[in-house]
Amino acid sequence: MMNVADLPEILPVFPLPGALLLPRGRLPLHIFEPRYLAMIEDCMKTRSRLIGMIQPREVPGTGEKRLNAIGCAGRLTGFSETEDGRYMITLSGISRFRIKEEVTGFSPYRRCSVEWTGFQRDLGPVEEDPEFARESFLVLLGRYFQTMNLSTDWSSLKEAETELLINSLSMLCPFSPEDKQALLEAPSLTTRRETLVTLMEFALRGGSGEEVMQ
Asked: For 108-132, how does the pLDDT look when each residue is reduced to its tens digit (9 = 90+)?
């Protein structure tokens, strides 16, 4: 377990649309761009081994891409190198952060000054969702998976802890980058589950306000 004192003020960031990391979640990544290979090598030299996953967003009418204000830092916990020099890594989610400003310098990858205030719960124990109705949730999830032609190990889902279930689905389901950002910014596990349900129901309506044909 890390605490606030272990968290750095400057964080290397990896802008990757649609890639969501949540606290206590695990995100596998395939690294092949030279700047991000350098980022991984530099990260492994630090004590915290933290990388900030962040969603880029387009500024309407300009085509310019900026970083969202909130991301999630992951600790590099898995690493392997392929014969052609690519890296296969795993990031374990530690805590969300808020960007204060981007740091300029000679680094080939982007770095940001960040603050961790407001996300202390991320460093705590597994979060609970007292209002979670697993049976009805799994029924909805089954309809969503069928509609989206997705498959899963249902026995594992039925036995998974509530936080692991909700966060894993939030990370893995094929939602838009904007929807993934909403899931990231959810202030509690209950709010994230409610957002997840809304997104699945919206997909079942074909992305419209029309009712689903039963």
From this structure: 999 999 999 999 999 999 999 999 9
